[in-house]
Amino acid sequence: MILSDRSIRRLLKDNALKISPLEKEQVQPASVDIRLGNTFTVVEDVSEPIVQMTKAVSYKTIQADRYILLPGQFVLATTLEYICLPNNLTAFVEGRSSIGRLGLFIQNAGWVDPGFKGEITLELFNANKCAIELQSGRRIGQLVLEQLDNEAEHPYHGKYQGQRGATGSKIYLDNEVPSK
Q: Which residues are annotated as a binding site for dCTP?
């Protein structure tokens, strides 16, 4: 069940859900507005033409209050908010329609698992023919919270726990071995 503004405010007041910094206007009828942080990360130019998921990728990270996203460019960004989900809530990130109508695609890879703590890394892509100015502090999306039917038996303790800033992929740490 998706949480209402009343439930969200109650959880925040009881400190069961932590989102910081948070202005009261960010709590919407069925979500919490999330804002763009000031950390942007891009894959560094490398001599190898193929990114391999079994090897670490080099990233370049900058901190800035504004970032110009060129047409066809991809950048990792972060939320301004640090989120602490209890073990009985999950969340997902939705982009704002107003942002999508500018050609800015906002993707978050899957759910935010119960027990997650950290800033949320956003994948941003400019599908427009014009550059788009990204500004720290601007509303970029919504965090939709959902109650689990039971507390998670194994809450999140993965490789992105506690992340701050736009965090690059750590898929190379997975123990997956492709079958031949």
A: 96-101, 113, 121-123, 142, 156, 159, 163
